[in-house]
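Task: complex structure prediction.
Instruction: return structure tokens for all chains below.
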Amino acid sequence: MGKVIALATPVFFALIALEYAVGRIRGRSNYRLNDALNSLSLGIMSQVVGLFTKALAIGIYAAAYSVVAIRELPASEWWVWAAAIVAYDFCYYWNHRLGHESAVFWASHVVHHQSQAYNLTTALRQTSSGALLGWIFYLPMAVAGFPPQVFAVAAIVNLLYQYWIHTEQVGKLGWFDRWFSSPSNHRVHHAVNDQYVDRNYGGISMIWDRLFGSFVEEDEKCVYGTRAPLHSWDPLWANVEVYTDLVRRSRQATRWRDRLATWFMPPGWQPAVPGGPTWQKPHFDVSRMRRFDPPMGRTARAFAVVNFVAVLVGATALLWYSGDLPFVALLAASLAVICVLWLIGAVMQGRLVPLHAIALEALAALLVAAAVAARADPQPASRDAAATQWCP
Ligand SMILES: [Zn+2]
Ligand SMILES: [Zn+2]
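Output:
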């Protein structure tokens, strides 16, 4: 998975450059440097964290497959691959729908929706905690007997397909918008307008939305983001904000039933006060949405761009070589990447001046040096020597 994303990275950035150029030529580019770098930072962080968690998700699937598969579908048959793409799309629909309609799943998925812009960088804005619970929705595929490698490819196809639909530069596409996930119907999905919220969950196909009553067409102008805006460029906070809110609210509840319900009811749910009305989604006035755009000086912009390019190159190399690195080196290099991403956010937000950020980066450089030292660790050789002692 990491290698596929590393290979796709130049294509992602070429298309971002194209979208930006087209937007500028048309006079309606919606790119802001801080927003774009923040979304891309969250994408990098999710891939780096995924080096540790994706194996868990695939491992659980493989374990479930070996125990509960009712039969083994042959990976050599083309129809198994086609059926896997459809089955994955169906499971993805429910994963995504619960990602909006149940608080604990929203706590993870919210990251993808925090941007108040809508462009190709938004597509790469992904959660780092998706692997924790997301696997639950795909267990029916293991029961049906789709081999793990077929499942993994279907997952990548679904993910990569969704890249191109995150753009305002492609208008309505007629019949295509009603049957397939497209820029128009996915703009609706990212909007907070009353008639758009919690609609159009489809990954590749819109059939599931049409079957289960969640499809709506785009008509009025979309306002993007979340109804409880993050207002921060901190990639760590972006990933934990809703979880911490859930912990706080469930601790405030007086009954165990309510504590548990806080996690599984819709986001923002509150237990009813004795004798009071039951909870309803609060009214939301879209015209009062405030854009988060703290000012950035020239030095801060230069720091953000230079560091982002460096961390992008480093993280792509990490994804490519992750399989060859000892665990300690992988962990140290991953922490260094996350540290730099956090620093970029802190400088863009004005929490740190670039000079202090550079000093902290020296610390991150030490982590990388430790990673390189661990790479050169002669331990495997000594393990071989130990093994040969036991050979007859
Ligand atoms: Zn969503
Ligand atoms: Zn999206």
